[in-house]
Write a structure and sequence with these properties.
elongated; four-stranded mixed beta sheet; 23% strand; 43% helix
Length: 358
């Protein structure tokens, strides 16, 4: 019985050792005497801290599950590294270089660094090929078509890495990086969350999923979701002041700094001039912008159709309500307020609106 107890104690000791992690690193002279912090990226909780002494720091802790940590100095993001931690991880961080490097004897951090290097090399090769094709006289669209195989291979680097690491934190970290681009529907994102361990815990994945849920609630055929902002004179203004009032409303979510947004403005002005009246209007919704720059752009672009300005700190976040992750986003609402069409652009938008106005 005494022998069995001794063995049990030994096993517990081995288990505790296997669950520990160590992160050591070096920082430049500006960090001397300051605090280094370890932050859980999924909970934003500060896990540990230590002082930088003689250009070095060290964290030791227990990891019952795999984690993605941010390491920063003095709570400033400019001095940071992302560290993948699993039970038994021994990692070394170098904050004296930009970007910071993290190594762990062939572990998740080394694998992630190797993936990023492969992606950078492939991206550089694609950029060079694109420039060469365009120098030969091909249009951008023609060059993209010619590079379809290269693009598939580039994306394949991510897909392969996710598949090979679907049972660990590295796979989840990669999913978090590509969630918005690779999984544009709720079904696709939920599928990868179910397949890749920890993916559903990652903040970018949660944000992407929330956006897709909002987009689902505001997809074509659904009734409009109201939001509030301000008219040009500073008075309170709502989407419902325009939508659901018996006319078609083409709503353009835009910003003064957005080049593609400005590219659509002549099309919107053309539609307003052609169809504006009792049955149709264009409505601009300015988002992610500064009020002064927004108002200056109205004059510069010759915009006369009505506007709603949404301040960054507004209680109603219009883009979140509609699951909008990029602008311009142009949506046509029917006279009763239902959503007719999203993602309208260019000549196709003009043709679609003209068809509805018949």
């Amino acid at each position: 019985m005494k022998i069995l107890s001794t063995m049990a104690i030994s096993m517990l000791a081995l288990t505790a050792c296997a669950q520990s992690y160590t992160i050591t690193g070096k920082a430049d002279a500006n960090a001397e005497g300051k605090m280094a912090y370890l932050v859980d990226q999924n909970t934003a909780a500060y896990v540990d801290s230590c002082a930088v002494k003689d250009g070095a720091f060290k964290f030791e802790g227990e990891a019952a599950t795999e984690k993605l940590f941010e390491l920063n100095i003095d709570k400033k993001r400019r001095s940071k590294a992302m560290v993948l931690v699993a039970p038994g991880t021994v990692a070394t961080v170098d904050l004296t270089v930009r970007p910071a490097t993290v190594s762990d004897n062939g572990g998740y951090n080394d694998k992630y660094a190797a993936l990023n290097n492969s992606i950078a090399e492939a991206g550089s090769a694609m950029d060079a090929k694109m420039r060469q094709l365009m120098a030969e006289g091909k249009s951008q669209n023609e060059a993209m078509e010619a590079m379809e195989g290269d693009i598939d291979a580039f994306y394949g680097l991510y897909h392969k890495a996710i598949e090979e690491n679907k049972d660990n934190i590295l796979g989840a970290t990669i999913v978090a990086v590509v969630a918005r681009q690779f999984y544009p529907t709720l079904e696709e994102l939920d599928s990868v969350i179910a397949k890749v361990k920890y993916a559903g815990e990652m903040v970018p994945v949660k944000v992407a999923r929330e956006g897709l849920l909002k987009a689902e609630a505001t997809k074509e055929g659904k009734m409009f979701t109201d939001f509030s902002g301000f008219a040009l004179d500073g008075a309170a203004s709502k989407l419902s002041d325009y939508v659901g009032k018996g006319k078609y409303v083409l709503v353009d979510f835009w910003a003064s700094w957005c080049g593609p947004c400005k590219g659509e403005i002549p099309n919107l002005i053309e539609l307003q001039n052609k169809f504006g009246g009792d049955k149709f209007t264009v409505l601009g919704v300015n988002v992610w912008d500064e009020e002064a720059k927004f108002k200056a752009a109205l004059a510069e672009e010759g915009i006369t159709y009505p506007q709603i300005y949404i301040p960054r700190d507004n209680k109603d976040n219009a883009t979140e309500l509609y699951g909008i992750q990029g602008i311009p986003q142009i949506i046509l609402f029917a006279p009763d307020g239902t959503i007719v069409k999203r993602n309208l652009r260019g000549d196709a938008m003009k043709a679609f609106v003209a068809e509805q106005m018949k």
